[in-house]
Design brief:
The complex is a heterodimer of chains A (266) and B (257). Chain A is mostly helical and 266 residues long. Chain A is 75% helix and 0% strand. Chain A has helices at 2-10, 32-50, 52-61, 63-91, 96-110, 114-122, 133-158, 162-171, 175-205, 217-228, 231-259. Chain A is flat, with a radius of gyration of 21 Å. Mean pLDDT of chain A is 87; it is low at 1-13. The longest helix of chain B is centred in the C-terminal third of the chain and has 16 residues, at 186-201. Chain B is globular. Chain B starts with a helix and ends with a helix. The chains are: A mainly alpha (266), B alpha/beta (257).
Chain lengths: 266, 257
Amino acid sequence: MEDKKEGSKANIVMVTDGASIPDPREWRLINAWSIALAGAVCALCMLCVLWPEPYLRILLYLPDGVLITFKITLLAICCAVPLGLITGLGRISRNRCINLLASTYVEVIRGIPLLVQIFYIYYALSRFVQVSGITSAVVAISFCYGAYMGEVFRAGISAINKGQTEAARSLGFNRYQTMRLVVLPQAMRTILPPVGNECIAMLKDTSLVSIMAVPDIMQRARSFVGTTYLYFETYTMVALLYLIITLLLSKAVSIMESRLNYYDAK
Amino acid sequence: MTQSDLSEHMPEASAEPAIVIDHVWKYFGSLPALQDVCLTIAPGERVVIIGPSGSGKSTLLRSINRLEQIDMGSILVQGKNIQSDENNINEMRQNLGMVFQQFNLFPHKTVLQNITLAPRHLRKLSREEAETRALTLLKKVGISDKANVYPSMLSGGQQQRVAIARALAMQPSIMLFDEPTSALDPEMVGEVLDVMVGLAEEGMTMICVTHEMGFARTVADRLIFMDQGQIVEMGKPETLFTSPRHPRLRQFLNQIL
């Protein structure tokens, strides 16, 4: 059983640009995750306690930006995950048109840097439609990550043993019911860590929207720097803040992953 | 099912055959997996298919519920062509229970949920009805105490018995078995075969691909020997085992017995 599971996971390319998801079976107290988190929290507290001016002032200036960052990330996740699921299903569809459409979407989006996509939607398309910074940020990030997640969903669905589909079809389920009742619930488990990873990567990439004057963490920091010229201090705090957020989120994904292992032999 | 006594004497003579396989060809690439196979199976008949690996016996079985698409010929199940678009293949499959070599239980569902999934969604049974039926079936296959565990906690033999119960829960009139004991440890083969023998005694129409010659001898109304995608010889199991006519069957029996 153990070998089989490793094998099915190896089929999925787990390397993404997000924080690494801690292994839920990791039990040791000292590991990369705990060292990074403890280090970041200690550094943050020490700076604020020893030099409240300017560090504490910076820390108190940023929370508005944290809310905006979370808002953009959440909205983008709500769009990108369904988009990714549809893309993934499209990529394994036997219908040639749907398959081509999904594949082309993935090819095009993956070939354009996210920053360029954001510029394109905000500035280039402003000739036709005027959208707010936040809207274009959400649209650009959703489209970009929808394509990446499409690949994750496709890989996760393809990794489910063909016998599962055959068993469901032989009972009389149609393709849609087979997907919904048998394949997707099982695929969720393999898909969750990489999707969680993409969501965390997404949170980090929202820092790009600061160029459109959306007041996220990064933009707040830039405006703070604009008046005080405290580059080192401000960006140190921003880096620590992002690090702590992504570390906590990667732990949350890891806990969710272990919850999904309920049906494995103990 | 009531016609089983009748079919024992003259399987071809019954009013409507359960399955008619008519000049079926199937290719994997350019390799013929089935070559001009013809076979008529009467309701209540128990047919066992044997043959060396790669002889097309599993392909033939899987063609009957269209898990494999045939390239030429036709297959009628209870008078309905499974290839035709007029007949809903999903509805027809509900009448054709299938048991796989690798069990293929749904690992994310408990034993009970595995059995009730199809009846609840496809037969629209209420939860209580479906569960009552499932528990009766679990009792029949002898594992009623495992209703609420996940398949990964069961032995291979237990999993295969659950798979049989799952197929039976749709109350099919025909059961297809694709090497149901080949993936089992030797000590678990008996418990699965016992369930199948019980099913045969109830008069279920059964088509079984297997390497269990003892089972074939006791249960089969008709034994079919396949080789290289063709039906080489068929008849009463006693006749085939004691006086095989075809040299390929003789060679096969020498190798395995």
